[in-house]
Structures are given as structure tokens and as C-alpha cells.
Specification:
Length: about 450
């Protein structure tokens, strides 16, 4: 038999965007080697100060590199995991940017991106027996790399493989026996084996239909039975469809500690989350409502006038709008209206930038994170690990509406969360499908 030809050893060259996405990215290339251009370290130096997640990732990577390189020179191949039984490859910092194919000259610009490309090109020349692969979250930089005949790929770790099969939290079952639907309407609990051949996902919602009616229900992760889901208003807000009803149920269910609500603009994600949180306010000491700051045109908030509060107000305004909408369901003299004002004044209800909660632990609170699609998987994990006793966390967002340059619908933290935590008894997810803001908003979503 002919001997099978072995594939060449791979060397992955990482761009700055990969490090800022996940500081431990160099540990996720199995037995292959990893190279870091010196220009990447120069760029990370500009990110090391600050409280934003990018600053955190930069600092953590620098510390990781310092630990791994102890006793070595950075321009030599250093084991990523010392030890004879290690299955990890090696890494080095690329110092030589003098490649035959000069990206600085070709693109006529001495940008850091082009210096990084030169480092990868030089490595490809010097390590001709290996396959050099350039890894970056920057789509435009990938295109430039490919134009220079460099193999270029996205960083795939933590990326959802198929968005079309992403868990929605709901299923519809047709032709269900009328007796089960009648029993659920009578608030009986039905063992899942009586209706389904396969066990449902924990806390999954269902619409059961027969020739004479239908019922909304969910699979209780603790009792392993189907139970009816009642449509109920929360703090003056009435669910307008089945998915909204499911979302309210998940938030009000004390056994579910983590909820994600996904949907396009106008489906009521944030409004429902806030209204349900207000409805369950007696169970918690505080309600926190936060969102990541994504500056317009990727500018730092320093370009905005005023003090820090004035700078942050534009980003928090959508959250205040939802709170005002709920409050305006009543007259100014009604106790519900007054209660919201008092909660804000006494800081029982806090609206704050997400960056301000880093490093804190939260107990006895309900925590709503809006625009969660703009978070990385690591940021999602960091937030959840902040949860103390009797804390409930709700993520809301639209995974197809990404506002940060190095995330997409498959690599953002919310998609990662939905994909990884489905079927956990502490978690429930609902995808809102129908826009309820207005007929005009629905027209824009459907036709434009």
C-alpha cells in the first residue's frame, strides 16, 4: 500500500483583533504553533489602560505571554504547555517584518495592519515547509491577506456553526390528542412521555394544537412534566403573542435563574424584560438594567461633550425610554407611577453602563443586560460569574444586529450563550418573532 502523505505542520499568525476578542486564543490551536507579530504587542500597549472589555483582554494577554515566556527569548519557539506529555504547540513573537512581498509598498500605507501582514509573509518565506495561516476578526484585513496569497481565516473558537439551527426555545406540535390539551387547560401536569417520543429540552416552550383548540405550555425541568403557561400582564404591559407570553413566564419563574430573549427590533425584548422585572421586584433588593457602550463610528466617548454622566446619557437613553413607556401606562397620581419614580430615586432600580459592573458581585438582584449581541463570549461568561445568591440574569438582543467591528451573528456572546446552555435546568431562551411596535416598524423589518 502507498504510504499516506502527511499534511504540513501549521503555524497560525494572530492579528490584534483576535487577542482583543479572546486573550487566551493562543491556547486554542491544539498541537499547532502560534506566532504573534511584534506590531500586535505595540497595538495592545495602547489598549492596556481602561475599564472596557478590550482593555481587560489586552492586559490578560500581556500577563499570559509574560508567564509563558519566563526564562525564554520571545523570538524563539516557546512551548505553550511545558512538559513531555503536552499536546500543545509552541509560540514565538515575530520580529522580522522585512518580507519580499511588501504590504507597506503594495497598499502604499505604513499602517500597523500592513506591518502585521509583512510579519506573516516573512514567516511564510522562512518556514516554507509549514502551512502559514493568518487569523483575524477583521474581514477587510482577511481580504488584503488573501490578495497577497496568504491563507487567511476567521477565529472560529466559540463560533456557532449554523445560525439556521440555533435554538429558538419554542416548538409547535400539530394533531395533539384533545384530551391532553383539555387536561392542560385544567392545569393538570402531563408527563412528557404521554405526548412526545423524545424528551423536550429543559424549560422549552411549546404550542400544542388539535383540531378543536390549542394550549401554551412548557417542559418543567424539575417535574419533567408539561405545564400550562398562562398569559398574564406584567406591570401594565400585556403580552401580545405566544412568544411574549413565554418570555414573561421565563422571567417570572423563580426556578429559572438565567434567561435570554432574542428578536429583531420592535419585538418587545427590553420592554417585556423590564416590565416583568418590575412585577417581580419584591423578590429582589434591586433591579439593574445595563447595556454595553458601543460608540458611534467606533469613536471613544471622550469626543462627546460634558462630564461622564453627560457622555453616557445618549447610550442609556433607550433604556430610559422603555422605563418611561411602562410608567406612562398610569397617571402621575397612580401608585404604580409614583413607585417607579421612588425606585429610581432610592436606587432600587439602576440604569448603568455595563463597564461599571466589572469586578463586582451581585446578590439578591435581577440583572437585565440589553444589546447582549455586542458582547463577546468571554464577556457573557464574566457577567454570569458575577451572580451571587438569589440573582437572576436576563440577556436581551438581536444576534443579526451587531454594532462592533469584530463580532458577527455567529461569534457574538449571545449566540454562544444560546447554543451552549440550551437544555440546562437553570436556563430558558425565547426567540421573539413578531414585531409589535407598530405596522410601520413591521413594514421596515419585512420590506427594507
Amino acid at each position: 500500500m502507498a504510504k499516506k502523505k502527511s499534511s504540513p505542520k501549521k503555524v497560525f499568525v494572530l492579528d490584534t483583533s483576535v487577542i482583543l476578542y479572546a486573550h487566551d486564543a493562543i491556547m486554542h490551536f491544539e498541537e499547532h504553533d502560534v506566532a504573534i507579530p511584534i506590531t500586535v504587542l505595540e497595538e495592545l500597549d495602547n489598549f492596556k489602560k481602561g475599564n472596557d472589555s478590550l482593555n481587560f483582554e489586552a492586559r490578560e494577554f500581556i500577563r499570559l505571554l509574560d508567564r509563558l515566556a519566563k526564562g525564554h527569548k520571545l523570538d524563539e519557539w516557546i512551548p505553550l504547555q511545558p512538559g513531555k506529555s503536552s499536546k500543545k504547540g509552541k509560540f514565538k513573537v515575530l520580529m522580522d517584518l522585512d518580507s519580499k512581498v511588501n504590504a507597506l509598498r503594495i497598499f502604499n500605507d505604513n499602517k500597523h495592519d500592513h506591518q502585521i501582514l509583512n510579519a506573516a509573509l516573512k514567516l511564510q518565506e522562512s518556514e516554507s515547509d509549514k502551512q502559514v495561516i493568518f487569523i483575524t476578526k477583521d474581514i477587510n484585513l482577511r481580504l488584503k491577506a488573501k490578495s497577497l496569497e496568504l491563507v487567511a481565516e476567521d477565529y472560529e473558537t466559540g463560533k456557532v456553526s449554523n445560525l439556521n439551527t440555533l435554538y429558538t426555545g419554542k416548538k409547535i406540535y400539530e394533531n395533539v390528542d384533545n384530551k391532553y390539551i383539555d387536561a392542560l387547560h385544567q392545569n393538570e401536569h402531563i408527563p412528557w412521555e404521554d405526548i412526545f417520543d423524545k424528551k423536550p429540552v429543559d424549560n422549552e416552550f411549546s404550542i400544542l394544537k388539535s383540531d378543536s383548540g390549542s394550549v401554551l405550555c412548557y417542559f418543567n425541568a424539575e417535574t419533567k412534566c408539561l405545564e400550562k403557561v398562562e398569559k398574564r400582564p406584567v406591570y401594565g404591559i400585556k403580552p401580545r403573542n405566544a412568544e411574549q407570553t413565554f418570555a414573561v413566564h421565563a422571567i417570572l419563574n423563580p426556578e429559572i435563574k438565567l434567561v435570554s430573549i432574542q428578536g429583531i427590533a420592535g419585538t418587545g425584548k427590553t420592554l417585556l424584560a423590564l416590565a416583568a422585572a418590575l412585577e417581580s421586584r419584591r423578590e429582589f433588593k434591586q433591579i439593574y438594567l445595563a447595556r454595553p457602550i458601543v460608540p458611534l463610528s467606533n469613536k471613544d466617548i471622550g469626543y462627546l461633550p460634558g462630564d461622564i454622566k453627560s457622555k453616557l446619557n445618549p447610550y442609556m437613553e433607550p433604556l430610559w425610554d422603555n422605563l418611561k413607556f411602562i410608567q406612562n401606562q398610569w397617571n402621575e397620581t397612580d401608585k404604580e407611577f409614583i413607585r417607579i419614580t421612588e425606585m429610581v430615586n432610592k436606587e432600587k432600580l439602576m440604569i448603568t453602563p455595563l463597564a461599571y459592573i466589572r469586578g463586582r458581585s451581585f446578590s439578591n438582584i435581577i440583572f437585565i443586560i440589553d444589546e447582549a449581541q455586542n458582547l463577546t463570549p468571554h464577556e457573557i461568561k464574566t457577567i454570569i460569574t458575577r451572580a451571587g445568591e438569589n440573582t437572576k440574569i436576563i440577556f436581551t438582543g438581536d444576534i443579526r444586529q451587531i454594532d462592533t467591528p469584530y463580532l458577527d451573528s455567529q461569534s457574538n456572546g449571545m449566540s454562544y450563550l444560546i447554543d451552549r446552555l440550551k437544555d440546562h435546568p437553570l436556563y430558558a431562551h425565547v426567540t421573539l418573532e413578531k414585531g409589535e411596535r407598530s405596522e410601520l416598524a413591521n413594514l421596515a423589518n419585512e420590506m427594507l
